[in-house]
């Protein structure tokens, strides 16, 4: 089965659907995204914007999700920006914090201080 993201006019993913591989087969057993797009356009009544995605991330860096953006230059699906201070790494199509997260411990990002804060876990319940 193949997966396609339905895009709006701004390349925002509005849904992801599964289609039969036969929709993509070019007759020689080779998958052809353009054939899949043409079939989806006909099936959807002419909706023009579609892009193939894959669970493995072998296509377009990652599996598309609703709310992601398809970047045609990077040929990648970009998740929503988590914080205003984070920047996009073009090589990975991933958002990067201005300060690397420490490797040990459990941390969360504090946008007000532009820093990682170590999470304080609650004490375990007393044994009976």
Roughly how many Å apart are the termini?
52 Å
Percent in strands = 25-35%
- In angstroms, what is the radius of gyration? 20 Å
Percent range for helical residues? under 10%
- Overall structural class, as computed from helix and strand content, comes to mainly beta
Mean pLDDT: 93
Low-pLDDT residue spans: none
DSSP helical segment count: 1
Query: How would you characterize the largest beta sheet?
Result: 3 strands, antiparallel
Shape: elongated
Number of strands: 9
In terms of quaternary structure, the protein is single chain
Order of helices and strands: EEHEEEEEEE
- Largest beta sheet: what is the strand line-up? 2-1-3
What is the structure about, briefly put?
This protein is mostly beta strands. It contains one helix and nine strands, in the order ββαβββββββ. It starts with a strand and ends in a 10-residue tail after the last strand.
Verbal overview:
The chain is mainly beta and 128 residues long. It is built from 1 helix and 9 strands, in the order ββαβββββββ. The chain has a domain at 2-80. The strands form 4 sheets. Strands 2-1-3 form a 3-stranded antiparallel sheet, covered by helices on one side. The chain has a two-stranded antiparallel ribbon with strand order 4-5. The chain has a two-stranded antiparallel sheet with strand order 6-7. The longest helix has 11 residues, at 33-43.
